[in-house]
Specification:
Elements lengths: L4 H10 L7 E4 L2 H11 L3 E5 L12 E4 L2 H12 L6 H12 L4 H12 L7 E5 L3 E12 L4 E7 L6 H7 L4 E6 L7 H10 L4 H20 L2 E12 L4 E3 L3 E4 L9 H20 L3 E4 L4 E5 L2 H13 L6 E4 L6 H12 L6 E8 L4 H14 L6 E7 L2 H10 L5 E4 L2 H12 L5
Parallel strand pairs: 12-14, 14-15, 15-16
Antiparallel strand pairs: 1-4, 2-3, 2-4, 5-6, 5-8, 6-7, 8-9, 8-10, 11-13
Helix pairs in contact: 2-3, 4-5, 7-8, 11-12, 12-13
The structure holds guanosine-5'-diphosphate and manganese (II) ion.
């Protein structure tokens, strides 16, 4: 399990690793409040699981709560990519993608991540940025510690261009990490003289965290040497070993922070715009406005929506089958309401799509369909003639919502 930076830092704090004081914010307003609370210069950081957020605009140094709010607003709108995705994005922006790259880029766009939180931290001036990590060396059956004075940037690039600047020390897990390992690392890495003492104290703490948390990796990049002469973990990538979850009850809690994004991520990889909600009526509609009002009428009918899902203009069989699949995978869903208004989208094609999708999937909850607009009559007739036992049709949006809610509550119709 890959943790978000703020989660990793919270854990490291328990092991007395120095991390900047910070607060998590879920909106630009909360980011402003956090900045006000911390006072002075702060850094606003996207909480997404991709490397190189800085390069993608996900890390902003600001001087005031107003600026923190504006920075957060921008960060929440960024599509973050993994390294390969970001390279392709740069090429795409420059208009220099070849056919094969275009295909991969399209896929990468669907896998893009948005931040649902930012971390607002007290900022400091950095004199130097180091790199430090602890990981498993599986082939040698050892732990491996890595330290470099050339941190902050892409460590793979440093490793290629200046391999001598990346110091690696193997650790026998039975003998554990000792002062001589720490000294070997700090001196060979040629850290600033004034930073050595504190780094020597931090390394054993990181190692203890690595072992006691059952982490498969802890990476601090940058381990920053500040103008005030402190050494701090300015970034943290902590990867926990899922197979150790049984002895760490808090793993589940950490995972819960990922759950919603996980389902939404999956939807996104299928090209669907889904937001998970807490109710039991699954919703599919075309057009954000229509889906929003569908959520409202479900509420009016005494029910609660399980999700927001806009299939946009592409209401064909494949899209509907993906949408139905992802919605019915949620065990909370007791009925599904499909609300389509045909404009350019033709209701007969939508009906065909729904029937086709039901043929591909094993759907065990009732599906209520309301079709209106272009070729609605034809679409409704097709649904009425389809023999699927779970399919119900309704003429109006209110009627459909009412039926879907009653079915979700276990009433027969
Ligand atoms: P990453 O790009 O996802 O690895 O995000 P980081 O947390 O490593 O931040 C990227 C870069 O932003 C760092 O390498 C620093 O150069 C800079 N940065 C982050 N926090 C601070 C801070 O508090 N002060 C200063 N001066 N720079 C910071
Ligand atoms: Mn970093």
């Amino acid at each position: 399990m890959d943790l978000f930076e703020y989660q990793g830092k919270e854990l490291l704090r328990k092991f007395e690793v120095p991390v900047p004081e910070g607060r998590v914010a879920q909106s630009p307003e909360e980011a402003a409040d956090a900045a006000r609370f911390l006072g002075g210069k702060v850094v606003v950081k996207a909480q997404v699981q991709v490397g190189g957020r800085g390069k993608q605009g996900g890390v902003a140094l600001v001087d005031s709560p107003e600026e923190a709010q504006a920075a957060a607003e921008k960060i929440f709108a960024i599509d973050f990519h993994d390294q390969e995705g970001f390279k392709l994005k740069q090429k795409a922006d420059a208009g220099s993608l070849n056919a094969q790259e275009t295909e991969v880029w399209e896929q990468k766009q669907r896998q893009a991540q948005r931040a649902s939180r930012v971390l607002v931290e007290r900022a400091s001036d950095f004199t130097s940025e180091y790199y430090c990590s602890f990981l498993l060396d599986r082939t040698k059956r050892r732990h491996l510690a890595i330290l470099s004075a050339m941190g902050g940037m892409d460590i793979e690039a440093v490793n290629e261009e200046h391999p001598e600047a990346v110091v690696k020390v193997g650790i026998d897990p039975l003998l554990a990490f000792s002062d001589f390992h720490a000294r070997a690392l700090v001196f060979a890495a040629k850290l600033d003289t004034e930073a050595r003492k504190e780094t020597l104290q931090i390394l054993p703490k990181l190692y203890r965290a690595f072992v006691e948390l059952d982490a498969s990796q802890i990476e601090i990049n940058p381990l920053a040497f500040t103008a005030e002469g402190r050494v701090i973990a300015a970034d943290a990538k902590v990867v926990l070993d899922d197979s150790a979850a049984f002895r760490h009850p808090f793993f589940d809690e950490l995972k819960a922070a990922h759950e919603v994004p996980e389902q939404e991520k999956k939807a996104k990889s299928l090209g669907l715009n889904l937001i998970k909600l807490d109710g039991d009526v699954g919703i599919i509609g075309n057009g954000a406005g229509l889906v929003m009002s569908t959520l409202d009428v479900v509420k009016d009918a005494g029910g609660d929506a399980a999700n927001f899902l806009d299939v946009g203009g592409g209401a064909n069989a494949e899209v509907l089958s993906n949408a139905l699949q992802i919605i019915t995978e949620n065990p909370a869903v007791k009925s599904v309401l499909i609300n389509i208004f045909g404009g350019i989208t033709r209701c007969d094609l939508v009906a065909e799509g729904i029937i086709d999708a039901l043929g591909r999937l094993d759907v065990t909850v009732p599906i209520v369909v309301r079709l209106d607009g272009t070729n609605a009559e034809q679409g409704r007739k097709m649904l009425a003639d389809a023999p699927h036992p779970m399919l119900r049709s309704a003429d109006t949006m209110l009627g459909a919502a009412d039926l879907a809610v009653r079915l979700a509550h276990g009433e027969q119709s």
